[in-house]
Amino acid sequence: MERLRAARPDDAILSEEGRDDLTRLSAQRTWIIDPLDGTREFSEVPRTDWAVHVALVADGRPIAGAVALPGLGLLFSTADPTPLPPTAASPVRLIVSRSRPPAAAVHVADDLGAELVEMGSAGAKTMALVRGECEVYVHSGGQYEWDSCAPVAVAAAAGCHVSRINGDELLYNQKDPYLPDLLVCRPELAEATLNSLASFATNAAPQTC
């Protein structure tokens, strides 16, 4: 963060490891950083499903981003997008957290006849999709902007569909950095996945008399 402030003194910074300064809301550009996404996985050597996230946001939208997977020696960046590889995976692979999968993700997996694949950090999950190791990533268990901003930037540059689970646009550098849900998937699966998520929301809504 010190090096970034020295190199870009007019930009604001929002980082998981830093104190939030709301002057970022009036800045033209804000860096959103997660120095270590997947602390649990990082501590479990030799796991490699942890990541480093760096993204640049203007007007609420990522305009550049990079995700490093140091355990694999890989770097993904909007400066050199990696096109989505072709896939004919059957069944569809839906990636979820190692802990309890969100109910919404399980619902989508049932609708799509998908296989659940467990993995650690959000960055590692999203890059697994960019690398062609899975086709859908649904998260509804709570996250913050630094968890998804850089992965979303890289995934969008690669040609993925990215949105909230209700289809709304993902917006960043908001006053409250809590951003509870996320959908990243191959574009050909976006409609079916969003329809499934909509049906889950309808069924989960409280019933009134």
Any overview of this molecule?
The structure is a single chain. With 209 residues, the protein is an alpha/beta fold. It folds into 2 domains: 2-77, Fructose-1,6-Bisphosphatase, Chain A, domain 1, CATH 3.30.540.10; 93-203, 3-Layer(aba) Sandwich (D-Maltodextrin-Binding Protein, domain 2). The chain is built from 6 helices and 10 strands; from the N terminus they run H-E-E-H-E-E-E-E-H-E-H-E-H-E-E-H. The chain has helices at 2-7, 39-43, 103-112, 122-130, 145-158, 190-204; strands at residues 12-15, 30-37, 51-58, 61-69, 74-77, 93-97, 115-119, 136-139, 161-163, 182-185. The chain has a 5-stranded mixed β-sheet, with helices on one face. Strands 7-6-8-10-9 form a 5-stranded mixed β-sheet, with helices on both faces. Strand 6 (93-97), helix 3 (103-112) and strand 7 (115-119) form a beta-alpha-beta unit. Helix 3 (103-112) packs across helix 6 and helix 4 packs parallel to helix 5. The model has no long low-confidence stretch (mean pLDDT 94).
How are the secondary structure elements laid out?
Layout: H1 2-7, E1 12-15, E2 30-37, H2 39-43, E3 51-58, E4 61-69, E5 74-77, E6 93-97, H3 103-112, E7 115-119, H4 122-130, E8 136-139, H5 145-158, E9 161-163, E10 182-185, H6 190-204
Parallel strand pairs: 1-2, 6-7, 6-8
Antiparallel strand pairs: 2-3, 3-4, 4-5, 8-10, 9-10
Helix pairs in contact: 3-6, 4-5
